[in-house]
Amino acid sequence: MYRAVIIGAGNIASGFDSPDSRDILTHAHAYQCHPAFQLTGFYDKDYKRAVEAAHKWGCRAYGTLAEALKAAKVVSCCVPDSYHRQILEKAAAYAPKLVIAEKPLASSVAEGEELLRTYGTGIPLLLNYSRRFLPEFQLLREEIRRYGKFLKGVGYYGKGILHNGSHMIDLLRFLLGSVECGKILKAEIRDYDGDPSKDAILQVQGQPFYMAAVDSRIATVFELDLFFEKARIRIVDGGSLIERYMIKESDTYAGYYNYVFQEREHVDYSHAMIGLLDNAKDILEEKGTPACSIEDGAEVLKICIQIRGESF
User: Fold this and answer.
1) How many domains does the chain have?
2) Do 97 and 2 contact (CB within 8 A), yes or no?
3) For residue 309, what pLDDT is reported?
4) Can you list the residues of the chain whose pLDDT is less than 70?
5) Closest to 276 in 3D by CA, of 69, 63, 131
6) CATH number, domain with residue 27
7) SS3 43
8) Domain that holds residue 101
9) Is 309 inside any structural domain?
């Protein structure tokens, strides 16, 4: 078994579920359930939080970061966004076999480039953009190749272009490949810790994708509407539903074609964390590569920083 430690003891590390929960929503629960891993403990700068998480998950709380990083060869970095670069740099100094990092990779392009240099030494880094690890989106990625040319799309998100908007950009890259920042629009909502939610027009396979921010203080929104020559895909209800519409000739008006609803598929997000660790196991056993690599994270980071209007 691979011994693992979690740095940070917040929601995604420990708080979203418990050992007896049906759904697996945290790093701790995934480590507890996966036969290839053993969770040794938590470190958090707030030692009390680490103790509470350790008690909850039946492991130990480490008093120092160094003590935690010495204890295991697999590290989950689950600290707030602004600390990602700092913790990932320190983790690399202990030469772990694998680092799993929550998104985004870092807070600036310069930090991302620094991490690329650090992890270019051979330490694999796996970034948790969760939809990449779900079978429903993996299947959709394969299907899209049959839908013809991508025509246009629109997406709605909130809670920061880097914190949550990066999920949308990464999903577009995963499903469709080429994504670039096109035009930055004036609309801006300051709904997350110095990370504004902004409107922008991306270029996806050379076609426009309109990315619009919705104030997360009112409601959390994550939706995409993608038009192709042969199909329309809607990802709605926070990404928990995938709707497929296929081109069909009108029954009433000959020669007119419509996108007609075909099916609705539910996405089970409780599989994402186990999928993440399945990929981690394959990497450790040299049977696979990161489904979301540090290079993927750096490309998404660059687009987000462009949308924020900040120079590199």
Assistant:
1) 2
2) yes
3) 86
4) 311-312
5) 131
6) 3.40.50.720
7) strand
8) 2-131+272-291
9) no
